[in-house]
Amino acid sequence: MLTQERRDLIVAYINEKNAVTVTELMDEFDASAATIRRDLSVLHDERKIMKVFGGATSLSAMDVNTKEPPVSAKVTLNVEEKDLISKYAASLINDDDFVYIDSGTTTLEMIKYIDNTKAKYITNGIVHAKRLLEKNLNTMIIGGRCKHSTEAIIGPDCIDGIRKYHFTKAFMGTNGISINAGYTTPDVDEALVKEEAVKHAYISYILADHSKFGQISSVTFADITSCCIITDKEVNRNYHSKTIIKVVG
């Protein structure tokens, strides 16, 4: 394992556990005490974790995120990672699929790579529906209330609409992934829509770059075991014991 890869995984592990010992990290990463202490010193200097006597603590992993950044802010984050994830996700669509595409910047990027004209697509993303139509794809949009900051359709009408359908595949966005908290988002209305979509899909894929792991937002919309994850970097092996993870980076 490369040094930077190990350090990225150490940060994710500490964020998930909140507080860890050097011994625990030695066992988890099969590394010597000297190597772990050196890693912790570097990560502390980089302000990624807090080094303490005998181990380290997370700076913010257990802080619950209650705010939803606007689309204009999120679209500029981890652009290359989203591109890798979305390209692979699009390749999973087959001719006979009935596909649900969640609102979100990574799922929006995915549409660029969709070339299957025989599948059917349904979304709660306003811009997503427009992009699908521009590609002459068989497109449906769920009705409901429009949320300005995420350009998503939400609310009771949206949920009732989803309940009528049974999707072969759902491609979902998330604000956070945690073994204990599952897949989370800051807004309860969006969480209810996401929850219903996952319930009505034969298989659900979470499209999330590595920065989402160990993060917790205020509302859980699905358990960690209920969806497969497509991400760009290897994650802590504890996640692999809970669900299927495809690393495309």
Counting DSSP H or I runs of 4 or more residues, the number of helices is: 10
The helix content is: 25-40%
Task: Name the shape in a single word.
Answer: elongated
Compute the separation of the termini in Å.
15 Å
Structural descriptors:
Arc Repressor Mutant, subunit A; Rossmann fold; alpha/beta; single chain; elongated; 3-stranded antiparallel beta sheet; 37% helix; 2 domains; 249 residues
Could you explain the architecture of this structure?
- With 249 residues, the protein is α/β, with parallel strands linked by helices.
- It folds into 2 domains: 3-58, Arc Repressor Mutant, subunit A (Orthogonal Bundle); 64-247, 3-Layer(aba) Sandwich (Rossmann fold), CATH 3.40.50.1360.
- 37% of the residues lie in helices and 26% in strands.
- The protein is built from 10 helices and 17 strands.
- It has helices at 3-17, 22-29, 33-45, 71-74, 79-90, 105-111, 126-134, 156-163, 188-199, 237-240, and strands spanning 19-21, 49-52, 55-58, 64-65, 98-101, 120-123, 138-141, 145-147, 152-154, 167-172, 176-178, 182-185, 201-207, 216-217, 219-222, 228-231, 245-247.
- The strands form 5 sheets. It has a 7-stranded parallel beta sheet with strand order 7-6-5-10-13-16-17, with helices on both faces.
- α5 (79-90) packs across α6 (105-111) and α8 (156-163) runs parallel beside α9 (188-199).
- The two termini are 15 Å apart.
- 43% of the residues are buried.
